[in-house]
Structure to design on (310 residues):
């Protein structure tokens, strides 16, 4: 998921701070929120008291899997885009490979180390639930690498949005809801709850691709933004954001839908900025606030669902 660092009078970070910047911490809500929402969903169908029937160590492992995959895909994109030259003169967060601050093999190793951490945590989960989850985990790791890696990365074909919705929405929420309960099961509620989470994860990617649209077009990176064009991408972003809150309203029902509607007000200034034609560096705050929107929407869902079991 989503060059050189932006021109700045300050020196670039070093040591752990450099690797933390390369991990793109502003994207981490994309992996945190599905685990929170999935756990809240699981609490709906376990016996009373609900907290005694949630397997908390598996939830912790699910969080490790989600965070490690997110960081891994960020390093993998950094490496693959960097060696292709796609990140040359890139606007946005610091790129380890494209900036020349870290040798490409080290960035690639960091990506696979992150995937290994996710795999180990995932193995602990599958050992006490269902071994078929190994296939899901393997698919997630392959999707993370081949988003920009390999000879024909699907992120360069405009398919990244679908992958993000599937793995950071459907798989992450439904998977967490499945493994969090002491009696694993897939429910209709877990499917519905994954929709707002997935749409907001997609909106983060769309904001990123809108920012990078001109340079991606020149580099031959045919993201959905390049395919839709500037205007189409802006409306696609709005549809994802507003669709997410509409799905949250349907999920929560009365009276907690009022909380979702109140939270939806926060989308107004962001949507105005996007539809107002913000581009380049002016879209960096949009990217950060979209991540915050996902966190807010996720907390609203957790509160609404949590109220039902208290």
């Amino acid at each position: 998921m989503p060059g050189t660092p932006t021109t700045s009078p300050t020196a670039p970070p070093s040591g752990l701070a450099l690797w933390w910047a390369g991990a793109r911490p502003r994207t981490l809500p994309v992996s945190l929120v599905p685990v929170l929402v999935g756990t809240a969903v699981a609490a709906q169908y376990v016996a009373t008291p609900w907290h005694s029937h949630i397997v908390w160590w598996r939830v912790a492992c699910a969080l490790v899997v989600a965070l490690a995959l997110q960081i891994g895909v960020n390093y993998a994109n950094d490496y693959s885009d960097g060696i292709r030259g796609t990140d040359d003169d890139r606007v946005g967060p610091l790129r380890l490979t494209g900036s020349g601050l870290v040798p490409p093999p080290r960035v690639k190793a960091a990506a696979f180390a992150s995937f290994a951490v996710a795999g180990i945590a995932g193995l602990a989960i599958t050992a006490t639930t269902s071994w078929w989850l190994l296939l899901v985990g393997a698919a997630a790791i392959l999707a993370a690498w081949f988003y920009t890696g390999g000879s024909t990365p699907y992120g360069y074909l405009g398919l990244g949005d679908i992958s993000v919705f599937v793995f950071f929405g459907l798989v992450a929420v439904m998977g967490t809801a499945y493994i969090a309960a002491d009696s694993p099961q897939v429910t209709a509620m877990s499917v519905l709850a994954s929709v707002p989470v997935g749409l907001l994860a997609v909106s983060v990617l769309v904001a990123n691709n809108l920012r990078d649209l001109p340079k991606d077009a020149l580099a031959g990176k045919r993201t959905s933004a390049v395919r839709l064009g500037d205007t189409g991408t802006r409306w696609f972003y709005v549809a994802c954001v507003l669709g997410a809150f509409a799905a949250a309203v349907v999920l929560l029902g009365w009276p907690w839908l009022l909380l979702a509607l109140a939270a939806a007000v926060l989308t107004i200034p962001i949507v105005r900025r996007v539809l107002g034609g913000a581009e380049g560096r002016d879209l960096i705050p949009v990217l950060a606030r979209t991540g915050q929107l996902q966190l807010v929407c996720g907390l609203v869902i957790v509160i609404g669902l949590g109220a039902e079991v208290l």
